[in-house]
Design goal:
The complex is a heterodimer. Chain A starts with 9 loop residues before the first helix and ends with a helix. Chain A contains 16 helices and no strands. Chain A is 74% helix and 0% strand. Chain A has a single domain, classed as Amino acid/polyamine transporter I (Up-down Bundle). Helices cover 31% and strands 31% of the residues of chain B. Chain B has 9 helices and 15 strands. In chain B, the strands form 3 sheets. In chain B, strands 2, 3, 4, 6, 7, 8, 9, 10 and 11 form a 9-stranded mixed beta sheet that branches. A 4-stranded mixed beta sheet of chain B has the order 12-13-14-15. In chain B, helix 3 packs across helix 6 and helix 7 packs across helix 8. At the A-B interface, helix 6 and helix 12 of A face helix 1, helix 6 and helix 9 of B. Chain A: It is found in: Membrane. Chain A: Keywords: Germination, Membrane, Transmembrane, Transmembrane helix, Transport. Chain A: InterPro entries: Spore_GerAB. Chain A: Belongs to the amino acid-polyamine-organocation (APC) superfamily. Spore germination protein (SGP) (TC 2.A.3.9) family.
């Protein structure tokens, strides 16, 4: 397929991919993993990172067995007309996840920072900005992410470094010697929403120049490792400061911990407020990267071109906005993310990657046999 | 062109609510609560709540003309819950009560955990209240402590908030922020504690802690036990102690400590091995003997004294089934258990190193 989309550089690819995972869901971390895994939480975090690396490795195997193209092109090459149900299922799950995360985010803003502002205003602003960015050209979106990502990452690590001063429960940061498999597995599955970026990786890697598979692999692993550091740091500053039992009672433990920062070193007496900028930026670009990839794939599927990307991006954002009203509370939204999206999406990705690799191996072998015969 | 103009106008409109400008509340309409005091009420089940506000007539230009005693004023109500108390205080006030600048929560040392916990939980559940306020017990009357004014402190800061914020002002860092106390309350193996604030001869004195066991009445640690607790939990900031040697009193000042702790499960409790490395400055050593020899003896006496305080604190913890040190927390977490109290068997080693200050040998 000949692309009409301008290419992006390796650094832009790295920032784009990094922004598309963890960022938008990080504010509810690590309450769920602790509640499910208990004192096996650190093993669950290790398992979660392994899960992300394993699915990405499988993804690369599939990529190596298919020709160039974005997600939907590779689905076509592997599944033919069955690419439709796959892409629609992925799109639906993506919309469900983003709607739930935007609901959780706006609930958090409303509870802690803007108690008098109506929820719909917060949701509308975030989704409108995300759709606006998601409807831009790839180069424009990538440049924006390239500018904002370092700013957001710096402010996060600055606050995290200040929060280390409040860590007192060092004992809670030691991995347990009694590993119980069932809750551990459940907890690992419950973290999948952080890493679900199959569509994003397969979509934007096609536009990276130089188009070297090895470079894409290295940058993807680097993105996963970067976020591994982020989630471990968050675990340390939340569980280390409050203790695991207290973290389990909080819906937004990271917000709680950062809002407790008080500093006499900076001019700002409550530096934790900087996180508001970090999260809002993170959430907007997290959603924008998903909307952009959703638009590209659906547009390519329906019209064999990318020209409907902005319209689909705005349409999906509208559906997310409407869908968020079906999630009346943060508890329901958390339930949707952890108990609906996570298992469904993980099962879907596992089946897709396993079967796709087998299909492509068989197809490639048949082609080789045909070539040898003739 | 039209579409672009529309887009700009819409984004401008969207930006308006972003800053919250549309629901602005003027400062002069706000009743900013600086401290809350909770004590036993006259009626059964009801508590007495005192809300302290900065005097609204204060402005930078009037600071010098308003008497120090008039910098703050109170609103007192009787209510059984925090929410009810805020509502009643609101009824008595013509300004909107704002809790986003809360600096302290104070209660008498006799208030039971059963009465205290709902208040702590309610304050923690309120989103806009910053959990960085200081928590403390005080000897009644609470108003005297809450409105204690120092010439060094300018309203709307309260004296106790500035005192606890100042890390160099305290010999032992016994202060507890709202979030610390709340998280200790929820952690098995840790007994929450707060400093006890007293007014002695018109000055604030903090020498003891009040510890809350999982059941029963609050436990008051004596000044020696509190110092032992301070050393054992690494809270020494700028402590001082004096030792009597050969008819002399030698002052050791600016003491601070480093520590290493190992805790393991033992039959019928927990075994704690703790090593304290205390360092500080020595005043003028006695002149009768060689400075080196006298320093070694003084150091040994100081070590003995600190060990005595530490053991007194451990003894008090075991007697009252409290663990403000949080020793048991690691054992209970690794075992996934919730046991109210594990007796502490402690092996404590203290080493003191002293330096001379100034030009004296």
């Amino acid at each position: 397929m000949t692309s009409t989309v301008e290419p992006i550089g390796p650094l832009q690819f790295f920032f784009f991919l990094t922004m598309s995972m963890v960022t938008g869901g990080v504010f509810i971390w690590p309450e769920a993993v602790l509640s499910t895994a208990g004192n096996n939480a650190l093993w669950a975090i290790t398992g979660s990172i392994m899960l992300a690396l394993a699915t990405t490795a499988a993804l690369f195997v599939w990529m190596s067995l298919t020709g160039p193209g974005i997600f939907v092109d590779r689905l076509h090459q592997t599944w033919g007309f069955l690419a439709w149900p796959w892409i629609l299922s992925f799109s639906l799950l993506r919309v469900v996840l983003d709607a739930a995360l935007v609901t959780l985010f706006s609930q958090m803003l409303s509870t802690i920072f803007y108690p008098l502002t109506p929820l719909w205003v917060l949701k509308l602003i975030i989704l409108a900005e995300a759709a606006w960015f998601g409807g831009r050209r790839l180069t424009i979106l990538s440049r924006n992410i390239q500018f904002w990502f370092p700013v957001l990452a710096f402010s996060f690590f600055l606050l995290a470094s200040l929060a280390f001063g409040n860590v007192q429960s060092w004992w809670a940061l030691r991995p347990s010697s009694h590993v119980v498999l069932t809750p551990l597995t459940q907890a690992v599955i419950g973290t999948w929403f952080l890493w679900a970026q199959t569509d994003v990786l397969l979509t934007i890697s096609h536009f990276m120049r130089p188009a070297r598979a090895g470079l894409v692999r290295k940058l993807t692993v680097a993105a996963i490792l970067f976020h591994s550091v982020v989630i471990v740091v968050i675990y340390m500053i939340t569980v280390g400061a409050l203790g695991p039992e207290a973290v389990m009672t909080l819906r937004w433990p990271l917000v709680y911990v950062l809002s407790n920062l008080s500093s006499h070193t900076f001019y700002l007496s409550r530096p934790g407020l900087i996180i508001l900028l970090t999260w809002t930026g993170g959430m907007v670009f997290f959603s924008a990267s998903h909307l952009f990839c959703l638009g590209m794939n659906l547009s390519q599927l329906a019209a064999r071109s990318f020209r409907w990307t902005p319209q689909i991006s705005w349409g999906a954002a509208t559906v997310e906005f409407g869908g968020s009203f079906l999630l009346p509370s943060a508890a329901v939204a958390s339930h949707v993310v952890l108990n609906v999206f996570d298992p469904l999406s993980l099962v879907l990705v596992s089946i897709l990657l396993t079967v796709s690799i087998v299909i492509r191996l068989v197809m490639n072998r048949q082609r080789i046999r045909k070539n040898t015969t003739f | 062109m039209m579409a672009r103009r529309l887009a700009w106008s819409l984004s401008g409109l969207l930006a308006l609510p972003l800053s919250g400008c549309w629901d602005v509340h003027p400062l002069e309409d706000q009743g900013i609560v600086l401290a809350i005091g909770v004590s036993h009420g006259s009626q059964k089940g009801a508590l007495r709540w005192t809300f302290t506000f900065p005097n609204v007539t204060l402005s930078p230009s009037s600071l010098t003309s308003v008497k120090r005693r008039e910098q703050y004023y109170d609103v007192t109500v009787h209510a059984s819950t925090f929410g009810d108390a805020v509502m009643r205080a609101q009824q008595k006030s013509s300004r909107i009560i704002y809790l986003g600048q809360l600096q302290g929560l104070i209660w008498p040392d006799t208030l039971s955990w059963r009465q205290l916990w709902p208040i702590v939980a309610a304050l923690n559940a309120q989103g806009p209240i910053p959990k960085t306020f200081w928590m403390m017990a005080a000897t009644p009357p609470l108003q005297a402590v809450m409105k204690f004014v120092s010439p060094q402190v300018v309203a709307p800061r309260t004296y106790l908030a500035t005192y606890f914020d100042c890390v160099h002002c305290q010999p032992f860092s016994l202060a507890q922020r709202g979030w610390e106390f709340w998280s200790h309350s929820l952690t098995p193996g840790v007994s929450p504690y707060v400093p006890l604030v007293n007014l002695e001869h018109g000055n604030v004195a903090i020498r003891q802690i009040v510890v809350y066991p999982s059941s029963g009445h609050p436990v008051l640690y004596s000044p020696q036990e509190t110092e032992g607790f301070g050393f054992l939990s690494g809270k020494v900031k700028r402590a001082a102690l004096s030792v009597h040697w050969n008819g002399h009193t030698v002052e050791l000042t600016k003491l601070h400590d480093g520590r290493s702790v190992s805790v393991r499960k033992a039959p019928g409790g927990i075994m704690v091995n703790e090593t304290l490395r205390v360092s500080g400055f020595i005043g003028e050593p006695p002149a009768e003997s060689s400075p080196l020899r006298s320093q070694n003896l003084i150091r040994r006496l100081a070590q003995q004294r600190i060990v005595t305080w530490c053991l007194a604190a451990i003894r008090q913890a075991n007697n009252t089934r409290t663990d403000p040190f949080g020793y048991a927390a690691s054992v209970l977490w690794s075992q996934g258990k919730r046991t109210p109290f594990l007796p502490i068997h402690a092996h404590i080693t203290v080493s003191v190193s002293l330096k001379g200050e100034g030009m004296l040998r």
